[in-house]
């Protein structure tokens, strides 16, 4: 048997389809003392004016992909990667390792009782699954997702469905999840579910902090 590698701290990967309620759920865990590391926010800051990924993006795609402020020209990049899967892979090769490193650094600096990584495409991405101790999926029927995103983003149904078609299906996400929050009713229906999981996660995080790694 090889020597046990240092055990990464207990962490949760929070995922769910568009509009399922990930941000709503993350806020409720944060209010109970969890640290949220939001990979969407990290991706956005990497491509904000003079963000850490901008030099590599300009080197790979050209200066036309940066706007006057030094931020990613999102509309231009979106139309490029929509039409060109090679370009999409090149962009992801720039962004994904940087998102991962920034997320791990944020987690290492976090002061909450445990870390929740919010990763919309956690099931799709492959590598995040191995990086978290438990996967938590927020689930609701697809009609509910569609109605929420249409209302929130003022989008037509066809556009919401197109976004959903690019994400893993509901059943595959449920199959990959260790824990599920059911979010088809009102916000108040979330409270008991989140209280129960928060207590479970607190117990797990205390246990992994005290058990020698060889015993896990
Ligand atoms: N249980 C609920 N009852 C009513 N509205 C809800 C409920 N949960 C979430 N919403 C609303 O639905 C919309 C989508 O929720 P939220 O932003 O939390 O989803 P998300 O999974 O983070 O979406 P995205 O994938 O776009 O980041 C928001 O406008 C939110 O206020
Ligand atoms: Mg969100």
Automatic annotation (TrEMBL):
Gene3D superfamilies: P-loop containing nucleotide triphosphate hydrolases (3.40.50.300). Keywords: ATP-binding, Coenzyme A biosynthesis, Cytoplasm, Kinase, Nucleotide-binding, Transferase. It is found in: Cytoplasm. It comes from the Bacteria. Its EC number is 2.7.1.24. The keyword Kinase applies. ATP binds at residues 19-24. SUPFAM superfamilies: P-loop containing nucleoside triphosphate hydrolases. It catalyses: 3'-dephospho-CoA + ATP = ADP + CoA + H(+). One of its GO terms (molecular function) is dephospho-CoA kinase activity. InterPro entries: Depp_CoAkinase, P-loop_NTPase. Pathway: Cofactor biosynthesis; coenzyme A biosynthesis; CoA from (R)-pantothenate: step 5/5. Belongs to the CoaE family. Catalyzes the phosphorylation of the 3'-hydroxyl group of dephosphocoenzyme A to form coenzyme A. This is Dephospho-CoA kinase. It comes from Duganella aceris.
């Amino acid at each position: 048997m090889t020597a046990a590698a240092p055990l990464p701290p207990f962490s949760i990967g929070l995922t769910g389809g568009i509009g399922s309620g990930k941000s709503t759920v993350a806020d409720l865990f944060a209010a109970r003392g969890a640290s949220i590391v939001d990979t969407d926010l990290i991706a956005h800051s990497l491509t904000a004016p003079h963000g850490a990924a901008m030099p590599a993006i300009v080197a790979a795609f050209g200066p036309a992909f940066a706007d006057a402020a030094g931020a990613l020209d999102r509309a231009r990049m979106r139309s490029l990667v929509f039409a060109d899967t090679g370009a999409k892979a090149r962009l992801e090769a720039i962004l994904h390792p940087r998102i991962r490193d920034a997320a791990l650094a944020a987690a290492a600096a976090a002061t909450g009782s445990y870390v929740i990584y919010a990763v919309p495409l956690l099931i799709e991405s492959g590598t995040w699954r191995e990086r978290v101790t438990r996967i938590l999926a927020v689930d609701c029927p697809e009609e509910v997702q569609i109605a929420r995103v249409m209302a929130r983003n003022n989008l037509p149904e066809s556009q919401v469905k197109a976004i959903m078609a690019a994400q893993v299906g509901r059943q595959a996400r449920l199959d990959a999840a260790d824990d599920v929050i059911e979010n088809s009713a009102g916000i108040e229906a979330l409270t008991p579910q989140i209280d129960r999981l928060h207590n479970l996660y607190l117990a797990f995080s205390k246990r992994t902090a005290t058990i020698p790694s060889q015993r896990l």
